Structures are given as structure tokens and as C-alpha cells.
């Protein structure tokens, strides 16, 4: 059993805050830890996080801090920060006396930029003995924070831990499932970011609904091909953390990655788009890491390569599209 006295959430951005509102139904105390002092002050004094989830009232049992020491008496610590900062954050936490029975859970989506390492693997490197899990699925913070119906998956190698977390992450509007395929879940959550960018680019180019349906379908084939080569199980990519997340990010305007892609398709410059977004779009750095992982694994990934050339080889979206449509003819299942 996990004590429901206190949960600590590393990352007081949009997803960390949405998870805070969800867990405030179950835990007596929710402590959010972020880098921004103004966000912590907003949460503590006004019960708001106007910067990341404007207009939302937070429950009174949610507090914020910028100090890692405020995680130490929590039974559960969630990591909900951009993947670019994960190793540093995990190292910083590991310098503190975190009890060995504290449950650690990654809720971030992406692989490490230079190494391709999954977030749970980074946590495991520094916390070899703690119970470890991941959370993923089609979950936009904007909707979970409004208590709109959502489903997610909890992944762990420890069945009892998954079951304990499943009951914690269950409310009348939030339903969770379990899986032991942490690799498949984390890879699906990382790879879908690239296709969400692609779907946004297609919208920006006004290609129409048929093109996006084709992209989601061929994207799923690519996600499964690459994800299984990197250690995930094929059926995981057919689930909530695979096709579920792929669909929500390819079709929803809440998706940060989709929004970045749309602006690119409309002809804006990547640096300007990122500067205006004010939140993390994991697909941007992850396109590079996933492209590299695909090359290292020798897996054919034409859509990922197309997004990579638009982002990192300065190619125009329309010329990349022309090239994609004139690739060698093949069977759908090849
Ligand atoms: N936003 C969503 O709907 C959503 C849903 C599911 C998963 N995710 C994933 O969750 C992760 C976080 O996304 P987000 O949208 O909340 O990002 P965000 O840009 O809204 O916020 C990021 C937060 O992380 C904090 N942060 C960065 N480095 C930190 C550190 N070392 N220690 C403590 N805090 C730190 C920042 O201060 C900021 O508050 C990403 O990997 C994203 O893909 C997001
Ligand atoms: O807004 P995005 O594109 O980072 O997607 C957020 C979540 O991953 C949706 O499940």
C-alpha cells in the first residue's frame, strides 16, 4: 500500500499541475516543485497556476515549493519535467536522502537527447532500489485539469505496485490500466511527438483530413516498427500509450507539438514558434533523438526522416511532402 498522506510532483508546468489536481482528490497533501518562483507563489497565495493552466482554481491541499527537500517525506514522487532536464533533476534529487521505499514515477514523454535512454532508465540508474513506474496515455493537461473523462496506463515491472498506483490514479473521471511493458509505453509516448508535429505541418499546409488519417495510420506502422526494434512489445503500440496518444496529439489543438507543426506548415520559423509557445514541445528535440535511434537500429522511418529534414535540414515542408509521395511503391504491410 502507498500512503496517501503526501505526493510530491517535480515540475509545476501544465502536466504537473493537472496531475496535482487529479491527485488532490486522493492525497491529503500535494507538493509541486518547479523552477519558477512566481509560479510557486501563484499556487501558494492564489491557488492558481496562471502561467501554465490559466483560469483554473487549484484545491487548497496543493502547495508549491522550489526546494527539492520538500519531496523527502512524500510516499510518491512524480517526475513531470521536460526530458532535456530529467538527468540533471534526477541527479539533484539523488543527492538527497530519498527513502528506498518512496515510489518514483516518470510522467514525461521523450527519450534522452544524446543517448536515447528512456526516462525510467535514467531514474533507475540513480535509484537502484526504489519502486519504479511510468504513466502515459492520451492525456492533455488542459482536459485532465477540468476533470474531463480520460484514460491512462501505469507501467511497472512490479505487479503489486501497478495495482496500488492504479487505485491511486482512479477517480470517477480518470480510469487507468496497467502494463508491464515500460519500454513500449515510453517509446510510444516519445515517438508520437514526432507524428504530432507532422500532423500539425499537414494542417498548416491545409492538406485535408485524408492526409492526416494516412499520417496517423502510417505513423502507427512506423512507431510499431521502431518501437519493437528498441525493445517494446507490438501490442503496447495498439493501446492507449501508443495509438491512443498518437490520435489525441495528431487531432487535438491542445497538443503543443501539433501547434508547433501547424505554425511550421504555415511558414513560420522554428525559433520564433518555440519562443512564443512558452511550454515544452518534446517533439522538437525528440525528432533528432528518435531519428538517430532509428538509424542506429537500422529501421526504415520515412515519416520521421521527413520531419527531421524539415526541422534540422532546412527543407521546405512542401518539397519533403513531394518526396514522400514519390517513394518506391510497396505493399501496405511491408
Ligand atoms: N502538457 C501535457 O498535456 C502533457 C501530458 C502528458 C505528458 N506530458 C509530458 O510531461 C512533461 C512536462 O510537460 P509539461 O507540458 O508539463 O511542460 P511545461 O513546459 O508546461 O512545464 C515544465 C515544467 O517543468 C519545470 N522544470 C524544468 N526542469 C525542472 C527541474 N529540473 N526541476 C523541477 N522542475 C523543472 C519547469 O519549471 C516547468 O514548470 C513533458 O515530457 C511532456 O511531454 C505533457
Ligand atoms: O501537448 P503535447 O503535444 O506535448 O502532448 C501532450 C500529451 O502527450 C498528450 O497525451
Summarize the structure.
This protein has 14 helices and eight strands.
Number of helices: 14
Which sequence of SSEs, written as H and E, runs from N to C?
Answer: EHEHEEHEHEHEHEHHHHHHHH
Query: What is the number of domains?
Result: 2
For the termini, the CA-CA separation is 46 Å
CATH topology of the largest domain: Rossmann fold
* CATH class category name of the largest domain: Alpha Beta
Ligand list: nicotinamide-adenine-dinucleotide, SN-glycerol-3-phosphate
Instruction: Tell me about the largest β-sheet.
Output: 8 strands, mixed
Describe this structure in words.
This protein has 334 residues and is α/β, with parallel strands linked by helices. It has two domains: 6-180, NAD(P)-binding Rossmann-like Domain (Rossmann fold, 3-Layer(aba) Sandwich); 188-325, N-(1-d-carboxylethyl)-l-norvaline Dehydrogenase, domain 2. It is 48% helix and 12% strand. The protein is built from 14 helices and eight strands. It has an eight-stranded mixed β-sheet, sandwiched between helices. Helix 2 links the parallel strand 2 and strand 3. Helix 3 runs parallel beside helix 4 (119-126) and helix 7 (182-204) runs parallel beside helix 9 (240-251). The model has no long low-confidence stretch (mean pLDDT 97). The chain binds nicotinamide-adenine-dinucleotide and SN-glycerol-3-phosphate. Residues 10-16, 33-36, 52, 80-83, 85, 88-89, 107-110, 139-141, 279-280, 282 line the site of nicotinamide-adenine-dinucleotide. It catalyses: sn-glycerol 3-phosphate + NAD(+) = dihydroxyacetone phosphate + NADH + H(+); sn-glycerol 3-phosphate + NADP(+) = dihydroxyacetone phosphate + NADPH + H(+). Pathway: Membrane lipid metabolism; glycerophospholipid metabolism.
Amino acid at each position: 500500500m502507498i500512503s496517501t498522506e503526501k505526493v510530491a510532483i517535480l515540475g509545476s508546468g501544465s502536466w504537473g499541475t493537472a496531475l496535482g489536481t487529479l491527485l488532490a482528490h486522493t492525497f491529503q497533501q500535494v507538493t509541486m516543485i518547479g523552477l519558477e518562483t512566481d509560479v510557486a507563489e501563484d499556487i501558494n497565495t492564489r491557488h492558481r497556476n496562471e502561467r501554465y493552466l490559466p483560469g483554473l482554481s487549484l484545491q487548497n491541499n496543493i502547495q508549491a515549493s522550489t526546494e527539492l527537500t520538500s519531496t523527502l517525506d512524500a510516499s510518491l514522487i512524480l517526475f513531470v519535467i521536460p526530458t532535456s532536464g530529467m538527468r540533471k533533476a534526477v541527479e539533484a534529487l539523488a543527492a538527497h536522502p530519498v527513502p528506498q521505499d518512496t515510489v518514483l514515477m516518470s510522467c514525461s514523454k521523450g527519450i534522452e537527447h544524446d543517448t536515447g535512454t528512456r526516462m525510467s532508465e535514467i531514474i533507475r540508474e540513480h535509484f537502484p532500489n526504489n519502486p519504479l513506474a511510468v504513466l502515459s496515455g492520451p492525456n492533455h493537461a488542459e482536459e485532465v485539469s477540468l476533470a474531463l473523462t480520460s484514460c491512462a496506463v501505469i507501467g511497472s515491472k512490479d505487479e503489486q505496485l501497478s495495482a496500488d498506483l492504479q487505485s491511486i490514479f482512479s477517480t470517477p473521471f480518470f480510469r487507468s490500466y496497467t502494463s508491464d511493458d515500460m519500454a513500449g509505453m515510453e517509446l510510444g509516448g516519445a515517438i508520437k511527438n514526432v507524428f504530432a508535429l507532422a500532423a500539425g505541418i499537414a494542417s498548416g499546409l491545409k492538406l485535408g483530413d485524408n492526409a492526416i488519417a494516412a499520417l496517423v495510420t502510417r505513423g502507427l506502422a512506423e512507431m510499431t516498427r521502431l518501437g519493437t526494434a528498441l525493445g517494446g512489445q507490438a501490442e503496447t503500440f495498439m493501446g492507449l500509450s501508443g495509438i491512443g496518444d498518437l490520435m489525441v496529439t495528431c487531432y487535438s489543438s491542445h497538443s503543443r507539438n501539433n501547434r508547433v507543426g501547424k505554425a511550421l506548415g504555415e511558414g513560420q520559423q522554428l525559433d520564433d514558434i518555440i519562443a512564443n509557445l512558452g511550454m515544452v514541445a518534446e517533439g522538437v528535440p525528440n525528432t533528432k533523438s528518435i531519428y538517430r535511434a532509428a538509424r542506429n537500429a537500422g529501421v526504415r522511418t520515412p515519416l520521421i526522416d521527413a520531419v527531421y529534414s524539415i526541422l534540422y535540414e532546412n527543407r521546405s515542408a512542401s518539397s519533403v511532402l513531394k518526396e514522400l509521395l514519390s517513394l518506391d511503391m510497396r505493399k501496405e504491410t511491408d
